[in-house]
Specification:
The complex is a heterotrimer of chains A (220), B (240) and C (314).
Chain A: H1 13-18, H2 20-54, H3 56-69, H4 74-85, H5 89-113, H6 117-125, H7 130-163, H8 173-182, H9 185-213
Helix pairs in contact in A: 2-3, 2-5, 2-7, 3-5, 4-5, 5-7, 6-7, 7-9, 8-9
Chain B: H1 3-12, H2 23-55, H3 59-71, H4 74-85, H5 89-113, H6 117-125, H7 130-163, H8 173-182, H9 185-213, H10 232-235
Chain C: H1 4-22, E1 42-45, H2 56-63, E2 69-72, H3 78-86, E3 91-95, H4 100-104, E4 107-108, E5 121-126, H5 132-144, H6 147-158, H7 164-175, E6 187-193, H8 196-211, E7 215-223, H9 225-234, E8 239-243, H10 244-251, H11 262-273, E9 278-280, E10 290-294, H12 296-302
Parallel strand pairs in C: 1-2, 1-3, 6-7
Antiparallel strand pairs in C: 3-10, 4-10, 5-8, 5-9
The chains are: A mainly alpha (220), B mainly alpha (240), C alpha/beta (314).
Chain lengths: 220, 240, 314
């Protein structure tokens, strides 16, 4: 059952050397697609999350709907979009942003919820107006959970970007697809390992940023 | 005719309910594979996670395994599996098991760690032996979190099984991949609906299982049982 | 909840019964007399094969063949070959310019009823972005391209695992493409189908266009024609390397206008393309057609030489 083709080793370093431009381009596209998805998601998720947090009646519907929606497998989501938006970056981004929004909204709500009521009341008692309290008390204290959501959203998106290779995008996923079509292990390994490395690097970077942003918390 | 009307017609067409390419067969392939892969992953991952959590060892390993597991692209794993094991069901199965193991391990670990140490002390004080404590005291308490992990893994498996159609397996993803190739928008849409529907059913079923596994006093409501049994940052993973 | 043993047994039984019922549906027929050979065979090919006039649909219409089942794999690629080797399929769609057919000892069944037509390589482009100078250099390339060039390049990709862009660069250097141009000529997106020959051709076209100053980007392995052609119509891409007869039968929805004459086929093709702002340029002498292949064992066992042999009982 195991097929080991000795003529095609898992990594041919000479291939790597000759294709640094292809790999770099794929990496850059991967980063670009991820950045747009996460930042765009954050842009949309922040107001939605704030609203869901403030108005209790909206909260359960928003969380339930998002919980149900992110059950939809990514290939299915892209498939639903293709008849309308074609095989374009737009389709890829709509799909990717949908997933980041779902993660971030949930974490924003949960994070803000986690701010102890006594602290909020103390701030109000000290004369903080709602907007100032939000910006200087609620959000900073909710940051760890929000950044945890950002980390999850980023890592997840980096994985999902590879699927967009089926839409003609893909970033490092293009190397994986090339490996499948050409029955060639090296680009496959470079694409998959590169994607993992990128995800780990992004996660570490964001964790570091979180520590910088919340110096009052000991590193968890 | 709008695409929605055409999709309804597609579902009404008896041709799509018959044979290898019919909905019943593809649905069966998908459910069977997902069930077996999740079960196998649980059989492999639970002992590891439970034991590690009980002894409080390898915490970093458990968390890092889950982080790494989340970072690995499922598409990449599938193609690597095909390189190793050829085409058909075996590579899909192995790739799915590999993807399902990390969330189960992590949640089992976290669930066991979160058991109140006083509970364990009390059990030990009563003279219970180590493995009895583990099975009869700790695991039931940790069960909700463990089930959350299995639920996450299960939905992940159903989703990735969709992708396995790209490496020449069957399942419901077949409609999407074939539809892409034949530029049959109706088939693509119908396939997406079937896949999304199955994923949601799986989520509901596993949520129900998680609810059943939660001791009565700790239950909130079926609808609000979410997958974040423990820390939201660790266990919430959308389906890839 | 207390009774782990019961749970374990239940799930074990469930799992085993599922596995047992699911197992054992690999294809393959032992010769049983009185039934057409085709009805004992599983056909393997790309997912679009059942609807394609030069693929399963054509085999049904022209040869009267009905297969036992169809297995969607890939476009004459490694998955199809693996399936042939494993016996998951008895007959598979490969491409006539595939370098590994000989190497693996497959037997291509003769197209004795001439289902395939002039599938000469031809660039299909948007006239708005691929202008006269670009068209000229593409025609220059096609004039020099031969079928044996294709076979040689395919072998480099499939067996030696060379990268299509490298193969293309070497080819361009070998044949010598003349032309020059400064920057600022405009952007062209070149797409390829999901098999390596298409990636090679797309790279050849793209690199040639870059020589004369176009800003070229690629969307390789984009998919089957059903995906790529609409993308061209929509303007998501500007150019792809097509195959004349199959392009024609795709765009005329299987009317049967293609002939073995490449020039006439391309002329007919252009009558459909022009209203869409598209054009098929000069066809090359290089051809790549669908080739239905079986393993040597299968060919010997059923005495297969021509495709029409599949209609015989065996």
């Amino acid at each position: 059952m195991l097929r080991l083709d000795i003529t095609d080793p898992w990594i041919r370093w000479d291939w790597l050397g000759r294709h640094t431009d292809v790999i770099t381009q794929a990496l850059l596209q991967h980063i670009q697609l991820t950045a747009i998805a996460v930042l765009g998601g954050l842009l949309i998720a922040t107001p939605v999350g704030l609203v869901a947090w403030r108005w209790r009646r909206l909260r359960n519907p928003v969380l339930s709907v998002s919980g149900v929606l992110y059950t939809i497998p990514s290939l299915a989501l892209f498939a639903l979009l293709v008849p309308f938006t074609g095989l374009t970056v737009l389709t890829a981004e709509i799909g990717l942003v949908s997933y980041t929004i779902l993660i971030l909204v949930r974490n924003i709500v949960v994070g803000l919820d986690g701010v102890p009521a006594e602290i909020r009341e103390a701030a109000t008692g000290m004369g903080y107006r709602p907007a100032k309290r939000l910006l200087t008390i609620d959000i900073p204290l909710a940051l760890p959970v929000i950044v945890a959501g950002l980390r999850l959203a980023t890592v997840t998106t980096i994985g999902l970007v590879t699927v967009t290779a089926l839409l003609g995008e893909g970033g490092l996923g293009q190397l994986i697809l090339a490996g499948l079509i050409q029955d060639f292990k090296t680009p496959l390994v470079v694409g998959a390992a590169g994607s993992v490395a990128l995800a780990v690097a992004a996660d570490v970077l964001l964790a570091g940023a979180q520590r910088l942003a919340t110096p009052w918390r000991s590193a968890r | 005719m709008s695409i929605f009307a055409e999709v309804l017609r597609w579902f009404a067409d008896p041709v799509h309910w018959d044979g290898t390419f019919g909905i019943p067969n593809r649905l069966w392939e998908h459910v069977q594979m997902s069930f077996l892969a999740t079960l196998t992953a649980a059989a492999l991952a639970l002992p590891v996670g439970v034991v590690l959590g009980h002894y409080g060892r390898g915490g970093n390993l458990a968390i890092n395994v889950s982080n790494l597991g989340r970072a690995v692209p499922s598409f990449g794993i599938l193609v690597i599996a095909v390189q190793l094991f050829g085409i058909g069901a075996p590579p899909a199965f192995i790739a799915l098991v590999a993807l399902a193991v990390p969330p189960i391990v992590t949640n089992a670990y976290v669930g066991m760690r979160d058991v109140d140490p006083e509970l364990k002390e009390a059990a030990r004080g009563l003279g219970m032996r180590e493995h009895i404590t583990l099975l009869r005291v700790e695991m039931p308490v940790a069960l909700p979190v463990i089930m959350a992990g299995i639920r996450t893994a299960g939905v992940q498996v159903v989703a990735t099984a969709t992708l396995a159609a790209v490496v020449a397996w069957g399942g419901l993803g077949r409609y999407i991949v074939d539809g892409f190739a034949q530029r049959d928008d109706v088939q693509i849409f119908a396939g997406a609906i079937l896949v999304a529907g199955l994923a949601m059913l799986a989520e509901l079923a596993l949520a129900g299982l998680q609810w059943l596994a939660t001791p009565k006093p700790m239950r909130s409501s079926l609808l609000r049982t979410d997958r974040s049994g423990a820390d939201a940052s660790i266990v919430l993973i959308p389906a890839t | 909840m207390r009774d782990w043993g019961f749970r374990a047994i239940l799930s074990g039984v469930l799992g085993l019964s599922l596995m047992a019922s699911g197992c054992g549906s690999s294809g393959g027929g032992s010769p049983s007399s009185g039934k057409p050979i085709a009805s004992q065979f599983v056909l393997g090919g790309p997912p679009e094969c059942p609807t394609r006039p030069f693929c399963e649909k054509g085999l049904m219409d022209k040869y009267g063949l009905t297969f036992k089942d169809f297995k969607p794999l890939d476009a004459g690629g490694p998955l199809t070959k693996a399936a042939l080797d494993r016996g998951d399929i008895q007959i598979g769609l490969l491409f006539s310019s595939d370098g590994s057919i000989a190497a693996k000892g497959y037997v291509v069944l003769n197209d004795d009823k001439h289902l395939q037509n002039a599938d000469n390589v031809v660039p299909v482009a948007r006239t708005a972005t691929v202008k006269a100078d670009a068209q000229a250099i593409l025609n220059q390339i096609d004039a020099k391209l031969t079928t044996s060039d294709l076979a040689a390049m395919n072998k480099l990709a499939d067996i030696d695992k060379q990268d299509p862009s490298q193969i293309a660069a070497d080819y361009i250097k070998k044949v010598g493409v003349t032309g020059s141009g400064g920057p600022g000529k405009g952007k062209i997106v070149v797409a390829g189908f999901n098999f390596s020959e298409s990636s090679i051709l797309a790279q050849i076209y793209g690199q040639a266009l870059r020589i004369i100053g176009y800003d070229v980007s690629y969307k390789l392995n984009l998919g089957a024609r059903e995906v790529v052609e609409p993308a061209l119509e929509r303007g998501d891409i500007d150019l792809y390397p097509g195959y004349a007869a199959t392009e024609l039968e795709f765009i005329n929805k299987g009317k049967g206008e293609a002939t073995p004459d490449p020039a006439a086929t391309v002329k007919a093709l252009n009558t459909y393309l022009q209203p869409k702002g598209l054009i098929a340029l000069d066809p090359s002498a290089a051809q790549d057609q669908n080739a239905f292949a079986v393993t040597k064992e299968t060919a010997d066992k059923y005495h297969l030489v021509n495709l029409s042999d599949l209609a015989k009982n065996g």
